[in-house]
Design goal:
397 residues, alpha+beta, three-stranded antiparallel sheet, 10 strands, 49% helix, globular
Length: 397
């Protein structure tokens, strides 16, 4: 087999790389070259990916591990390089303690309480789209502003600063758009902004997450809170913003899917998870650094190896999912791996599902005649973004 390089080529913006099926069948544990030029091992079968992600011995690489680098020349700054772990541990008991502390905020009760405000914001964004007229760019007008508003609400920062958060998020996550110096400058700006904000929160606490963490641990350091805030921004903004655009594009690419949702809006919840499962643009995959030898898929991977778990490929494994390449709006159960698995599964997945559900509910209700304004083949993927996405989603109605 010819040398594999990430990202793997695909026939269209919403189509899976043909290599996935071949790899799952013939070479599920395959050598691959990353955008940095470093070599790693790519896993594409569902069982292998889930097993490795669920193994508490292995975590995302840190700067000290000597793992294969994902980004060239340090692009993407501390998020890509794994430097946040100096304050927020990414493995062991320290990591689990951090998850327990932050996870207190993401309860079902709190997500239910947030839903009316998210709906109100989505309605206002649609009002803006209608006022500006068609065609519209769904990501810019709706997909990005909605989750950044939610993150600003959770962190207790003014919604009018959302453009700054969008810039910082992209600078932390894009491995080709920004230089190492630009990413570092964005981190310094974010650090300064959040430091000022934390001083304000300590003086005048509210009902946001940072206030809650300070109330729970009066001696918590600003460095810990800063890294937590950055983690939430990175995990909770760019990923959901892109997921909204990709989900709507998938549904509009096959008009029958959109029409069925209009007729059966109760399917929105299962549709969201099915769109997450079918998403071919989840980024390069989740890296794991092996601190000891491990057997995966019949192969022994040596200590010191870097493994890339291809979530999107695993989510289309016919050994786990019936009709894996077909979008079944009522699919249930749906044990997809879009949010990862095991001790590092996404803490904010209930929030992400809530945002995606609200986005679909509002668009279906307010813009039932929504259509793509360009042929599906003209949609373009974002280059270099760790979490994957479409650069634009032009729509009309």
């Amino acid at each position: 087999m010819a040398e594999l390089r990430l990202p793997l080529p695909a026939d269209g913006p919403l189509e899976p790389p043909p290599a996935w099926e071949d790899l799952r069948r013939e070479c599920p544990v395959a050598p691959v070259r990353l955008p940095s030029g470093d070599e790693a091992t790519l896993l594409t079968r569902y069982d292998d990916v889930r097993t490795l992600l669920s193994d508490p011995r292995f975590a995302r690489p840190t700067a000290e591990d000597g793992a294969a680098r994902l980004a060239p020349e340090g692009a993407g700054g501390p998020v890509v390089d794994g430097e946040l772990q100096d304050v927020v541990p990414d493995r062991g008991e320290g990591h689990q303690r951090w998850r327990r502390q932050v996870g207190k905020y993401f309860t079902a009760k709190r997500m239910t309480a947030l839903r009316p405000a998210i709906t109100e914001r989505a309605e206002a964004l649609v009002d803006g789209m209608v006022e500006q007229g068609q065609p519209a760019e769904l990501k810019a007008a709706f997909g990005f502003p909605l989750p950044v508003y939610v993150i600003c609400t959770i962190l207790g920062v003014p919604a009018e600063d959302s453009d700054r958060f969008s810039h910082w998020s992209d600078a932390f996550l894009n491995v080709s758009r920004w230089t190492k110096e630009e990413s570092a400058a964005a981190y310094e700006e974010f650090d300064a902004y959040m430091s000022r904000h934390l001083a304000h929160v300590r003086e005048r606490p509210g009902d946001d997450m940072l206030s809650m963490l300070i109330a729970d641990q009066p001696d918590v350091t600003d460095a810990w809170l800063l890294r937590t805030g950055m983690g939430l921004l990175v995990a909770g903004h760019e990923t959901t913003a892109n997921a909204i655009g990709k989900t709507v594009a998938m549904l509009l690419a096959d008009r029958e899917l959109w029409e069925r949702l209009l007729a059966e809006p109760e399917l929105v919840r299962t549709t969201v998870d099915e769109a997450l499962r079918l998403d071919v643009n989840l980024g390069f995959g989740l890296r794991r650094y092996l601190t000891e030898d491990v057997e995966v898929g019949g192969s022994v991977l040596p200590r010191g190896a870097t493994v890339v778990c291809a979530l999107s490929a695993a989510n289309r494994d016919a050994a786990t999912f019936e009709e894996p390449d077909r979008m079944l709006l009522s699919r249930s159960p749906n044990p997809h791996l879009a949010f990862g698995a095991g001790p590092h599964a996404c803490l904010g997945q209930s929030l992400a599902r809530t945002e995606l559900q609200v986005a679909l509910e509002v668009l279906l209700r307010r813009l039932p005649t929504l259509r793509l304004a360009v042929p599906v083949g003209e949609l373009r993927r974002v280059e270099g973004l760790l979490v994957g996405g479409l650069s634009e989603v032009p729509v009309t109605w």
